[in-house]
Design goal:
Structural class: alpha+beta
Distance between the termini: 52 Å
Number of domains: 2
Strand order of the largest sheet: 1-12-9-8-4-7
CATH class of the largest domain: Alpha Beta
Strand content: 15-25%
Order of helices and strands: HEHHEEEEEEHHHHHHEEEEEH
Number of helices: 10
CATH topology of the largest domain: Chloramphenicol Acetyltransferase
CATH superfamily of the largest domain: Chloramphenicol acetyltransferase-like domain
Largest sheet: 6 strands, mixed
Shape: globular
Number of strands: 12
Length: 307
């Protein structure tokens, strides 16, 4: 590693969470030929219908977030276009590969922790969940995160990943092991470990909750709602082949059809979305059923009341 001399600088070594993010994103950009597509639907009517539905949930004592319903929109798109919900296994030296379509739609969602760090837990088997069930699953995921020792979780995920790479014959892993022997030994031990693992696995996150995702949905709009930019590109987390980045809703001039059936220009709510796919696995035409489904939902948003 090159040492840089910066005046009045301080050094902050990567913790285990930052190490994992750096490792996985580096693998992504080293190995995945990304293709990105910017999609910016008019969500004015959709937003109005969402507000009505959120009010119904609130009257029943439950909060429905815009993030949850947008996740549901994307799930519906994936159900219409299952080729995007897949893993890839590719051997570059031999130029051989395969795509494994998944019946289960497991949604990886970047989640900001109370200490400012981010993890990407997974909502598993969302393909058959109603909107109410999906909303409950998100709430329960938050509760499980609160009961989880994040450093221990990541440690276990790193160990599992290392073992899997060794089974594949990836000897480069040995260099990573020797470089991080001290960090690999930093995990719960003794009574602390016994107490933590006494928590039932269903009540906390486990390693599979970080590795079972079939698609990643990142919502930067929820972090900064006043932003006026949008994703231009985002990484795909191998072995997934598809990722979606959501921006914040923005007011822009747009053409729409009024109640008289006439087209006019007005201020509209738009939602910038970035979609990235692995070009090794699919071509752009594979995304068309997904886009058509989203178009249909945003053009006929009353459908959300049936979810």
């Amino acid at each position: 590693m090159t040492e840089f001399a910066l005046p009045s600088s301080s050094t902050k070594p990567f913790d285990i969470q930052r190490q994992m993010v750096a490792h996985m994103t580096s693998l992504s950009w080293q190995n995945v030929p990304h293709i990105s597509y910017l999609y910016e639907p008019d969500v004015t009517d959709f937003s109005n219908e969402f507000k009505k539905l959120a009010a119904e949930y609130a009257s029943a004592g439950t909060r429905l977030s815009i993030n949850t319903i947008l996740v549901k929109v994307i799930i519906e798109g994936l159900k219409a276009d299952p080729t995007l919900n897949a893993w890839i296994d590719y051997d570059l030296p031999r130029a051989r590969g395969k795509i494994m379509l998944s019946e289960a739609i497991n949604v990886s969602i970047p989640w900001k922790l109370t200490d400012g760090r981010m993890i990407t837990p997974t909502l598993n088997h969302t393909e058959n969940l109603s909107l109410h069930e999906l909303n409950q699953a998100v709430l329960e995921l938050g509760e499980r995160i609160e009961r989880t020792n994040i450093d221990e979780l990541i440690h276990q995920a790193v160990v599992t990943n290392t073992v899997n790479e060794l089974k594949k014959g990836n000897l480069e892993v040995f260099r990573r092991i020797f470089a991080n022997l001290r960090r690999l030994n930093q995990h719960l031990k003794g009574l602390a470990k016994q107490t933590y693992y006494a928590i039932p696995a269903k009540d906390r996150l486990v390693g599979d909750d970080l590795t079972s995702g079939t698609v990643t949905i990142s919502n930067i709009g929820s972090l900064y709602k006043e932003q006026r930019g949008n994703f231009a590109l985002l990484e795909i987390v191998p072995p997934q082949i598809f990722a979606v980045g959501l921006g914040a809703m923005q007011e822009k001039p747009g053409v729409f059809t009024n109640v008289k059936g006439e087209k006019e220009i007005g201020i509209r709510n738009t939602l910038p979305m970035c979609m990235a796919f692995d070009h090794r696995a699919i071509d752009f035409d594979a995304m068309i059923p997904f886009l058509r489904k989203l178009d249909d939902i945003f053009e006929h948003p009353e459908i959300i009341h049936t979810w």
